[in-house]
Amino acid sequence: MFRRERWTTPDNDFVDVDWLMPMPASVAAPPLLVVFHGLEGSSSSHYAEAFADVARTHGWACAVPHFRGCSGELNLAPRAYHSGDFAEIDWLLRRFADQHAGPVVAVGISLGGNALMRWAAELGAEARQVVAGVASVCSPLDLAASGRAIGRGFNRQVYTRMFLKTMVPKALQKLAQHPGLFDRQQLLAARDLYEFDNVFTAPVHGFKDAEDYWARASAKPHLHQVAVPALALNALNDPFVPASSLPLAADVSSYVTLWQPEQGGHVGFPSSSSLWENFPGHVRAMPEAVTAFLAAQL
Questions:
Q1: Which residues are catalytic?
Q2: CB atoms within 10 A of CB 45
Q3: Side by side, which strands form the sheet with 14-20?
Q4: Which domains does the chain have, with CATH numbers?
Q5: What's the angle, vertex CA 89, arms to CA 87 and CA 91, rounded to 5?
Q6: What pTM, to 2 d.p., does this model score?
Q7: Which residues of the chain have pLDDT under 70?
Q8: What whole-number distance in Å separates Cα of residue 125 and Cα of residue 220?
């Protein structure tokens, strides 16, 4: 389904970008849908494949850039990726816009959506020179609230362990690349995402600690600065994103549309949701609805 390109980053590292194949031939300059994946995701994540399939149906181009270290090969620099990396999002989206003749729209899933919204807020009106619209899906726009949620009860026992199973080995590989980057024993003792972020993510990416990282990287406090059409889709029953932490209309600019259905979980969204009641039950229901929002901005 995808063809891979390797892009050299400004700091002489690399990111891998997977392009939907074949490219659409129906129009000379089709819209390009850029999909930013979630924590430990990739172009093989179910949502990335679903968005690519919807893009193909619409005759759009589609690309999935991998955050550093998520393409199956460890990146080179003494860093990885994080939820608020709007500088990386900026570099990627500007390159897509420069090399693609048609309009560009972007969607971010979970972590990728927070980073995308953080970027849109940081750029303000300038974002409209790069993209026609953006969307976040199931994103932890308040990282502290989501961090606490995933560190409790069932989430801690199942999902935290699942994430750490891949994140810790990659961090140890990074330490082998760059000795002294962080404390190995503290990393091995980490039992939840807070402790992992406190030992690795925060200090490696220039934050004081996990609390500082979660506060400064969260998109929610900045959504009033967004000046490009944006959709923030969050289910009220998402186990990772407490409903009480979601933005209200008073928290966002007039450019931001809030969709907050009662059901959907974390990137689930059964077709019974009133947002896409006309879609039968299949994995494309949510990507169809989000893509329709983005298409309306073109």
A1: 110, 238, 266
A2: 19
A3: 2-8, 14-20, 61-65, 32-36, 104-109, 133-137, 230-233, 256-259
A4: 2-142+218-295 (3.40.50.1820), 148-216 (no CATH)
A5: 70
A6: 0.93
A7: 24-27, 151-155, 157-158, 269-283
A8: 18
